[in-house]
Amino acid sequence: MRLSSLARGLLAAITIVVLAAIYLPLVVVLVNSFSTSTSLTWPPPGFTLEWWVKAFGNAGALDAVLTSVQVALAATVISLVLGTLASLALQRFEFFGREAVSLLVILPIALPGIITGIALNNAFRTILGLQLSIVTVIVAHATFCIVTVFNNVIARLRLLGTSYEDASADLGAGVWTTFRLITFPQLRSALFAGGLLAFALSFDEIIVTTFTAGSSVKTLPLWILDNLFRPNQAPVVNVIAVVLVLVSIVPIYIAQRIAGAEKIAR
Amino acid sequence: MAADQPAIRLTGLTKTFGAVNAVDGVDLDIAEGEFFSMLGPSGSGKTTVLRLIAGFEQPTSGTVSLFGQDVTDRAPFDRDVNTVFQDYALFPHMSVLDNVAYGLRVRGMPRRERHALAREALATVRLEGYGDRKPGQLSGGQRQRVALARATVVRPKALLLDEPLGALDLKLREQMQVELKELQRELGITFIFVTHDQEEALTLSDRIAVFNEGRIEQLGSPAEIYDKPVSPFVAAFVGTSNILDDTLSRLVLGRGGIHSVRPEKMSIGREDTAIHTDREVAGVLAEVIYVGSSTRLIVDLDIGTRVTVLEQNDADRVGEDERGSRVRVGWDERDTVALAAAPIPADDLPLLTRPEPATR
Ligand SMILES: Nc1ncnc2c1ncn2[C@@H]1O[C@H](COP(=O)(O)OP(=O)(O)OP(=O)(O)O)[C@@H](O)[C@H]1O
Ligand SMILES: [Mg+2]
Predict the structure, then answer these.
(1) How many domains in chain B?
(2) Under CATH, which architecture does the A59-265 domain have?
(3) Please, which of B101, B257, B340, B347 could form a disulfide with B118 given CB 3.0 to 4.6 Å?
């Protein structure tokens, strides 16, 4: 496509403005984490590593990181298993209500977090009579993390078609052997990408977490929210925020790289 | 197991997809060691019959028996037949050797043993030394041979081949046809070969079933199918035929019914020369098409129809420069084939003669 130089300049300007609007605040957070000021003043009066040192000695913050990692890992594992099963069922078998089930599986990602949160809170406490705990957070996160796995796997299954599975059955392999030797190896990268996204989604989730965590469980986002407006904690929060951004971005970057590499390989 | 047991027996086999009768009451016995072809236009149900035999589809009604055993309710992995798929379906994440060894692997054969057998199978399709490659690194013809090796290494009692040569160019195709035939003779097993290429079916097969709209229109040896087509559909689908409908038959032959005459059985001569055949009709030369070893001449007969005549090329043939001149077309009574007097659906036979495919 050819554009006039005016149009090209305009497009470039819009792109720069949009990207700047997204990423400049992140840069501010990064810079502030090295600032000598404790009150998020701009520009920073001086530079220090004090907050980074403090952050890594902060028991509350480290605890929160650990909790978040546990929640994200568990939610990811659940999503991988259930997401794969659901996509296999919906892509490989005909049954009544298939379309409806398919929609129901994807819906949680579109539901407002606050609705999911309130609904799950209700279900856990009043209907099931459960104490809110790390387990309830994990289950809550899994409800929407499944979607990323499901979407990745079902797209791959559609692309693969059934002919490899037919060929495997034709050569004498049962259903499980076919899955293990033929389907799963070809799903691996889709599972990896879906799992990474699920991890990132869980790691920085805050709304649903608020409603399902109770008072004893502090994930990293919850800890940040608690500490953001405490005067002496603000710089430490900046440090944690930077870490959180990195932990969220890296998996997405890797997932994108995998998708890109596979497109080229095909 | 009785010795005269058919390898494959289909009884009343029917498969409907929604409103479509993909397969419509097929009864068929295929003998052990037979090279059997299913020939038919696109959508006539050939693939569906194959998938029903392999077990990928469940029939709406009817049964599939293999060597006297009813296998209608058995899963594909529980049937003693193997398939060579139209798109080969080689596992892309496995090496060629592992692909070929797959059927042995799922039967629990140890690695060393199955690799030895797989190497042997690769040798029979002349692909020794290719075992370490991935399927993506092979040419179309090589992939096709890997698919053959993979399906035959497990020693099936019958091999189902769904247009296995469809993706190959003409030269490779002809070469692979010979190899297929040799392989079948070597293995001595039943081959069921699906194709929509009539020439391929005629050269390879012991018997052919011509499919039309989910039914077998005619079943017989290649010679029977070609020389004695039972219906206008078969006459037009297998090779080229000049078809005389009821009115024209009365006019030219002096009797009713539908008749066909092959283009190569017709002779052509200039208006003033005698051609010494039982039947002679005058007309105008409409088109002359040179096809290498022979020439196809299209003539508009005065009785109101168009016929195709195939003539070997020799010095005195009617030439291209004679387009538009008056000619005589003739043929002998013994080359006139009476087709079933079934009425021809108008849209099945839009032209009186079907042109041969351009690639042939
Ligand atoms: N899974 C399916 N769902 C719905 N209709 C189908 C399905 N499979 C086949 N059909 C229909 O059944 C009919 C027969 O199809 P089939 O694939 O057996 O034809 P074919 O003779 O193999 O044709 P081709 O030469 O094009 O491969 C077609 O009308 C097709 O549209
Ligand atoms: Mg087909």
Answers:
(1) 2
(2) Orthogonal Bundle (1.10)
(3) B101
